[in-house]
């Protein structure tokens, strides 16, 4: 059965800290891995990583994909209170366009 | 563009009542999805559609029905609401175009409470 597992489930840090969020996956015919940020509303897209693009960076956020060990990490440097959110990881496999979602990591950044 | 919109934003139902949630997208996307999100359970797919007139079951379809009569709209119906259907419902859509192929765009959500 396809699955995506995120860790930790929750995390509390202080402003300025660097955090690493983990996502492991077991997906048949893996196609891509996606990261989303969810504040008190709908998830918003952050990154997509595929076999041809295993590292992405946007400002203080970066993500890598390890295709051999079947995991991805999301790094956030110099965290700010605005980074407080649930970070969701999802994976796509096969041709059916459905995403397999992890349970998310709840990040709280304290001032 | 409005992107993905959902109607209503909030609703309170009594057990046994019925209702329909409307999702609309103006991005000409082929794929549309209905999810529910509960604390500690993540996003769970209820039903999805790969095109106008076509729907399929997700992982938690029981108690829900859907219809996709127009490409831009995806309706989620609850025929006889139960307290277990209290949740936040998200609609999403994705395209068949160029990369990112799998990115799903989400609506703002509907918070449903069944008493």
Chain-wise SSE layout:
The complex is a heterodimer of chains A (111) and B (115).
Chain A: E1 3-7, E2 10-14, E3 19-26, E4 30-38, E5 44-50, E6 55-58, E7 61-66, E8 71-76, E9 85-93, E10 99-101, E11 105-110
Parallel strand pairs in A: 2-11
Antiparallel strand pairs in A: 1-3, 3-8, 4-5, 4-9, 6-7, 7-8, 9-10, 9-11
Chain B: E1 4-7, E2 10-13, E3 19-25, E4 31-38, E5 42-51, E6 54-57, E7 64-67, E8 73-78, E9 87-94, E10 105-106, E11 110-114
Parallel strand pairs in B: 2-11
Antiparallel strand pairs in B: 1-3, 3-8, 4-5, 4-9, 5-6, 7-8, 9-10, 9-11
Please count the helical segments of chain A. Answer: 0
C-alpha termini separation of chain B = 36 Å
| Percent of sequence in beta strands of chain A | over 45%
User: Based on helices, strands and strand pairing, what is the structural class of chain A?
Assistant: mainly beta
Report the principal-axis shape of chain A: globular
Unreliable spans of chain B are none
Backbone shape of chain B: globular
Write down how many β-strands of chain B occur, each being a DSSP E stretch of 2 or more residues. Answer: 11
What is the gyration radius of chain A calculated from CA atoms? Answer: 13 Å
Task: Kindly report the average pLDDT value of chain A.
Answer: 93
Largest sheet of chain A: 6 strands, mixed
């Amino acid at each position: 059965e396809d699955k995506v597992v995120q860790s930790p489930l929750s995390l509390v840090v202080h402003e300025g800290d660097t955090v690493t969020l983990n996502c492991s996956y077991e997906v048949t015919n893996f196609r891509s891995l996606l990261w989303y940020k969810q504040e008190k509303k709908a998830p918003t897209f952050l990154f997509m990583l595929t076999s041809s693009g295993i590292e992405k960076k946007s400002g203080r956020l970066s993500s890598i994909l390890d295709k051999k060990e079947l995991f991805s990490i999301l790094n956030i440097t110099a965290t700010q209170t605005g980074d407080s959110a649930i970070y969701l990881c999802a994976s796509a496999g096969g041709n059916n366009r459905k995403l397999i979602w992890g349970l998310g990591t709840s990040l709280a950044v304290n001032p | 563009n409005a992107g993905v919109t959902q109607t209503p934003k909030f609703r309170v139902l009594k057990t046994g009542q019925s209702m329909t949630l409307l999702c609309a997208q103006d991005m000409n996307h082929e794929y549309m999805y209905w999810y529910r999100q509960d604390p500690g359970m993540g996003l769970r797919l209820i039903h999805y559609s790969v095109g106008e007139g076509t729907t399929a079951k997700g992982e938690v379809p029981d108690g829900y029905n859907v219809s996709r009569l127009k490409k831009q709209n995806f309706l989620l119906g609850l025929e006889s609401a139960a307290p277990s259907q209290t949740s936040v419902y998200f609609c999403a859509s994705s395209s068949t175009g160029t990369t990112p192929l799998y990115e799903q765009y989400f609506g703002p959500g509907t918070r449903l409470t069944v008493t």
